[in-house]
Amino acid sequence: MNAALSTSTSLYRFVLYFAGAESKLGRELESSYRLCAVVGYNKVINKLLFNHLAVVREYTIPSYHPRIYHSMRCEAQTMPSRKTVISASSGLWMKSLKHLVVFSSLCCLISGYSERERVHDLMSRYPLIDGHNDLALQLRILHNNQLSQIDLYNVSKVATDITRLQAGHVQAQMFAVYVLCGAQEKDAVRLTLEQIDVVRRMCTEYQDFELVTSAQELRNSEMKHKIACLISIEGGHSIDSSLPALRMFYQLGVRSMTLTHTCNTPWAESSSKIYNIYQRQNNSLTHFGKAVVEEMNRLGMIVDLSHTSWDTAWAALKHSKAPVIFSHSSSFSICSHGRNVPDWLLHDLKKKQGLIMVNLHSKFISCSDEANISRVADHFDHIKNVIGAESIGIGGDFEGAVSFPQGLEDVSKYPALIQELLQRNWTENELADVLRRNFLRVFEEVERVRDRLSLNRPSEVQISVKEVQNPCRLVLRPPDPRRPSDMSPSSRAQNGPKGLLILVIPLMLSSLLMIE
Amino acid sequence: MLSKVISAAYLALWISSCAVTSAVDQYMIRALQLMSETPLIDGHNDLPWQLRKQFNNELNKVDLYTLKTTHTNIPKIKEGRLGAQFWSAYVPCETQYKDAVRQTLEQIDVIHRMCEKYPETFMFATSSQDIIEAFNMNKTASLIGVEGGHSLDSSLGTLRTMYKLGVRYLTLTHSCNTPWADNWLVDTGSEPSQHNGLSPFGKQLIVEMNRLGMLIDLAHVTVAVMNQVLNMSKAPVIFSHSSAYSVCPNKRNVPDDVLMRVNNTGGIVMVNFYNDYVTCSSTATVSDVADHFDHIKKVAGAGIVGFGGDYDGVTRLPAGLEDVSKVPKVVAELLRRGWTDKEVKAALGDNLLRVLREAEKVTHTHTFFLLLFFGAFSQKTVTVDRQERGREMGDDPQQRTQPTWGASRTMIISMIIFNWLWNQKIYNFLKSLFLLCLLSLVYKITVSQ
């Protein structure tokens, strides 16, 4: 037995020395050991075995008893000691002055500590669900989707990685599988499939991530202390005007779609006018666009209206049977950028019990390249005044933009924002709504609408050829799309009597002649 | 008098005809009996392509119970005792470098919708287990095969996501070269060879397909690709709709040496019923089709033969096999030629089930090592845990970290190192070397306890 213990300790030290305590290997060892102390060796071994299987076949890791994790949480929250000893000094004035200085600084420190404590305590009980993150895009640009070359615990040149997500108390993140607008009419579908594949691989290969596709799974992943990954498509150009492609994306785990990015699609308009394609008057959400929204309602995919023009957003709001969201847009009244949402649209959103998740990009916060947390909080305050805190969320847009406010540079800085809101007298209830409960409510309502529409057949609406002509799109259709099925039987029916008549008439004529 | 003679003649004729038909009926009865015990698994049917061509994938405008313009509809499937079918998600070669991916997704979607619309007939399946389950429920298991590497647009991400959508085989090419594989027209001389078989990316694709558990279909590829894949693939391969080259020398068929290699690797060749590939002419009979089965059995054994009719993908079919309801005639013909029950069952479905299971196993081989190896030792830790758990939680923490935990700790460390090393893509021989060392180390420890 002693031999076993000494072997294990020497192996442990060997690994830590060569791999380094900060490397993935060392960290995995540490976390496994910490876990052993709580759940036992057998469970850890099983977990390791299952993880190996998960890499290959994407099994779900069995869940642990929540009681164990509550005890682990208490361990993680070690409180810093507050009491310091005030030393005695010479003169009374000096003494009292010193007392005053020390006392006031202590007060500030304590209130600072207690504020920060309060924020961390609140965010531990209601960890954040963030509406938009473009990490998948950065993985493509910087590393060509080669996950084996990087360590997602510490990624350089980006604002998101697992360590910082955990520090920022982010429990669920919607990862956008965005592909450039330039791929529209080219290979947008294939590129989107590759981005979905990289998010799926990322979320199954790392134990701290868990891919979720329903509200219940989101809740469960919180109990298991994992970061839930949701997949969202950013831009209708990814579906190439095809409802079957939309359905297949849903089957791959996509749960939300932004109707446009910065380019118009043949069926919806964008707020940005960079690209001069698919421009039309008074038809911002076409008949096919409405069919897309209906099919998203039927499937249970959240309709996202960020990046769309106000007309398209209004039309989609009217048409959708389920609540919609703006996954990363801010308030137009505070910063008049076309990407932001005006107050009248906010009122319509409220009527449909939707959600606006505030974008943190400086250009949308202060309409300039610089911003600060106070300005961000102004957006929150304004939207709360207009439609109330039950329609607000946070959609950071990290990795999807370059400049962020001072103090909110990466995903670990969310607590600073919550602290500012606390100082502006937001109640803990309102903040709990903003952090997570509003999104869960919207997601669950979208699922309820899906259940109500479960008897509907999948939609077979197809976009008309003249709306979507481009050289990369082959039309493999029967010649006349207006009468597809009643062509052949009716034509055969007509040919029958015709042939017979042609046969009969000469016979009759010849018989007539013969009789004569 | 005359009437008596005539009636006697008619009686004699009738009796003799009864005798003849009852002889044939006997084989048919046996065939139907065998088909009720083992599912007929057909490797290729292009009904989804017909749905697209004729109806724009608008299933609301079609009733599969009364559809008359295709070889396949539900009553014919029932009559033909079809136990499982690989539906082909095919898009034409013209879509390569254009919108092949989106069109393939639409074909995969129509197969899913067809299964959802007729749940009493079809059950969507993705594994050998699912096929058996569907057969027990008297439904036709529906699997998906993508016909043509051009549907992937040269992307491993697309391959993986299509696997997630239920695709279980990929025909490497249709009748056009992909950027990484040559198609059968190169063998006929009508197209130039671009890669002499598979390009390096094509070889990576084969490795990934093995890892995922997706079957590699070699119908429509050149002989060079067939040989290269048979060299490389760790899992058995399939030919979803190809017949025997020796019987009909069409380049779509499989030469004898490849047949023998398929037997060595445990694969399957599913015989195509298209006249041009059965008799190399525009007419054929049931007997000609059975000749292919016999030849494959003679050259490589009944363990590699199967049915891959290519219904709704071709225009000329043998007399007597015009649609999917007539397939039992082939089975009866095989029985008439002296095939044993076991051989016929192998051809019907057992061979394909074996191939599917092998492919599913290949994804698990390296984890099997782990399980086998560590599973034996986890028993020890289980008993140790139970002893520990028996105590109260408020025990002296020193007592909990007893020397009995040593073996488990070693195991955990070694598993973590193993896992990490595995993901670092070290060469195969190093992997096996490490495994061996680990095995001996842990064995030594446990023996010394």
From TrEMBL, chain B:
It is an enzyme of class 3 (hydrolase). This is Dipeptidase. Homodimer; disulfide-linked. GO terms for biological process: lipid metabolic process; proteolysis. GO terms for cellular component: apical plasma membrane; side of membrane. Its cofactor is Zn(2+). The keyword Cell cycle does not apply. It is found in: Apical cell membrane; Membrane. Belongs to the metallo-dependent hydrolases superfamily. Peptidase M19 family. Independently of its dipeptidase activity, acts as an adhesion receptor for neutrophil recruitment from bloodstream into inflamed lungs and liver. Its EC number is 3.4.13.19.
